């Protein structure tokens, strides 16, 4: 999906709708984070002026929509797997042998199909390398970037799953949260429960009825109105780090599910799977995915835009 020219749309029946929702309805397939970035940079304008994503459009408003293009990662999730997405995935590999590939998965690409997504990482790999029986060793969220291990044989998959069951797999995530993280908060040990909104969207919340979940946190650097953290999940629940951070009063920047206001409007989810340690051929190995440029850019600014 792409547009090669500026489009002007006049608001009619959508009067009173938030600008971000107005744009999401027209730019189907573009992630919310991309739309927020377009608005923040002034690429989207209303009646020739810059506005915030929370602006409520009025009948007669002239909304400027700039040229846009989906990236290769989103192409793969929009209903087909492209050769470009496949080649991009291979180029991100931080480790590759005849039994395992560890990718630095880009933010915005699902790891597998489902929930309206036809193709993710594993389907893309299988399509363009059908002779290899790719299987996900574990999962990370679509909008989380970083280390993702994919087995290339059934034997390798079973061996790595056994390592997970024994508790021998270690993970480190880097994240940036809103506000000043309390210096004494090192562990969040709260059960998590999955539930479904009236819209059908799946979410997770802290609940006594949930499954045990524990995340250890360490402050890496205070950054004005935000804090850079390292997170070490001791369990592997859906959205665990995101919900534990948000339930502590400090949601991850760019989290369109669990953050609100300015924290939600950041350009991407500031969560990156930076390190993964697991056993390969009876030898513990540590894999690392370099931090995305967004982290360094935020460090230089000292606070979220």
Would you mind describing this structure in some detail?
With 305 residues, the protein is of the alpha+beta class. 24% of the residues lie in helices and 29% in strands. The strands form four sheets. Strands 6, 7, 8, 9, 10, 11, 14, 15, 16 and 17 form a ten-stranded mixed sheet that branches. The chain has a three-stranded antiparallel sheet with strand order 2-4-3, with no helix packed on it. 37% of the residues are buried. The model is unreliable at 71-79 (pLDDT under 50).
C-alpha Rg (nearest Å): 20 Å
Task: Indicate the proportion of strand residues.
Answer: 25-35%
List segments where confidence is low: pLDDT < 50 over at least 5 consecutive residues: 71-79
- Biggest β-sheet strands, sense, barrel: 10 strands, mixed
Instruction: Name the structural class.
Output: alpha+beta
**SSE series:** EEHHEEEHHEEHEEHEEEEEEHHEEH
- Number of H/I helices: 9
Estimate the helix proportion, in percent.
10-25%
N- to C-terminal separation? Answer: 28 Å
Shape estimate: globular
Overall average pLDDT: 87
Strand tally, please?
A: 17
